[in-house]
Design brief:
With 412 residues, the chain is α/β, with parallel strands linked by helices. It is 32% helix and 26% strand.
């Protein structure tokens, strides 16, 4: 059933009333609000994607309970679970303070009629692949059904000002199942990332018409559901070995948030004709490139060594600022000499062995200082910039221009 917008005539930009469009609804979950840009925008449509079992439904169920506690009108529509199953999951999570309505339905025509009649503030559809529209061809989950269902929900969101969250399954390639235009149709796209065998989960915003992109929220998966991690740096460094070669700490920027993470490297003589290379949590090709640069510029014989690089904690980071940390970890393991525990690094490494400046240098240094580190090895360009800013800091800054200067800095 097609609908027309109530006000279809043109309006001058200066006459548009901003009071309603600026309205944001806090979810009651700080990390989720951070990724959304401050809360739920009225009339917006949010796609939440992620691997099966990663915690998408858990997060949204906890959000519904938190919103219901604030007397928000919330409707949770599930096409995958019965009402009794949702109730059992809510009891396991300990969510029951806020009461909200549940609907187990897959016929989108029935859902559309209900939304037109009752006009709830916030609706969760779990999942979009289970919905079907009688007017569209194909089976539920097919390209035509997903596209038509998303289009209907988008029209309802814009016409009635309903904020709608839709859950999308992820394929083996890491994209939302169904047409790619599904991501283009919605206002915000959130991906829930993490290893099912690890406790942490990261909620990443890859598209947001009402806030910054690439913002992240960090959660810990427990038996009673997801819990926010207000200090990800401290959480990521738990259990870090002391005085062990091949272990260094780097500062990565996720969205606008600096996070300290541990880089581990293991370099050992190979028993094969071709050395083995493994990278977990970062770009494999980048690690190979850095090993080649170290061999060429520092004379480190990597051709006869196996090389293993790991981002501890199961986190996946591909930021160029990790280059200096990866290089330091490889050098430390190769020389069997530990890097000082109070030292942190960041910087990009080029093919000639030069160390290039990176963005957000002051935020990285501030995070390192907050976490108690006393030395920061950083690109010379960033070092000069921080000196010009004349910000008082208790941390010692060591600017390096090349990998050779990095070696000298590590020997101090």
């Amino acid at each position: 059933m097609q609908h027309a917008l109530p006000d279809s005539k043109p309006e001058f930009l200066s006459k548009v009333d901003m009071k309603q469009s600026q309205l944001r609804i806090p979810t009651g979950i700080g990390e989720l609000d951070r990724v959304l840009g401050g809360g739920i925008v009225k009339g917006s449509m949010v796609l939440v994607g992620g691997d099966p079992g990663i915690g998408k439904s858990t997060l949204l169920l906890q959000m519904c309970s938190a919103l219901a506690e604030k007397k928000r009108d919330v409707l949770y529509v599930s096409g995958e679970e019965s009402l009794h199953q949702i109730k059992m999951r809510a009891q396991r999570l300990g969510e029951g303070q806020g009461d909200f309505r549940l609907l187990s339905e897959t016929n989108l025509d029935e859902i559309e009629a209900l939304l037109q009649e009752e006009k709830p503030e916030i609706v969760i559809v779990d999942s979009i692949q289970t919905m079907f529209c009688e007017e569209a061809s194909g089976q539920p989950g097919s390209m035509s059904q997903v596209k038509e269902s998303t289009g209907i929900l988008m029209r309802l969101a814009k016409i009635y000002g309903i904020s709608i969250f839709i859950v999308g399954h992820v394929t083996k390639e890491g994209t939302v199942a169904g047409p790619r235009m599904l991501e283009h149709m919605v206002d915000t796209v959130l991906y829930f990332e993490g290893d099912n065998n690890a406790a942490y989960r990261m909620l990443r915003g890859v598209k947001n018409r009402f806030g910054s992109t690439n913002e992240v929220g960090v959660f810990e998966m427990r038996r009673d559901g997801l819990r926010e991690v207000p200090n990800p740096s401290e959480y990521m460094l738990q259990g870090r070995p002391k005085g062990e070669p091949g272990s260094v700490v780097v500062c990565s920027i996720e969205g606008t948030r600096p996070i300290l993470i541990e880089i581990q490297a293991l370099i050992c003589k190979t028993n094969f004709n071709m050395p083995r290379r493994t990278a977990a949590g970062t770009d494999y090709n980048r690690v190979n490139l850095l090993m080649a640069v170290l061999e060429k510029r520092l004379g480190i014989s990597m051709a006869s060594c196996d090389g293993y690089v790991n981002v501890a904690g199961g986190m996946r980071v591909s930021e160029p600022a990790l280059d200096l940390g990866i290089a330091a970890a490889i050098i430390s393991s190769y020389r069997n000499r530990a890097v000082d525990e109070g030292t942190i690094l960041f910087g990009e490494v080029g093919l000639t062995g030069e160390v290039r400046g990176v963005s957000w240098a002051s935020a990285r240094v501030a995070e390192a200082e907050k976490m108690g580190y006393h030395t920061c090895i950083l690109p010379e360009a960033n070092y000069k910039m921080l000196l010009e800013e004349k910000k008082e800091t208790k941390i010692q800054l060591l600017g390096v221009r090349s990998l050779k200067e990095l070696m000298n800095a590590l020997d101090r």
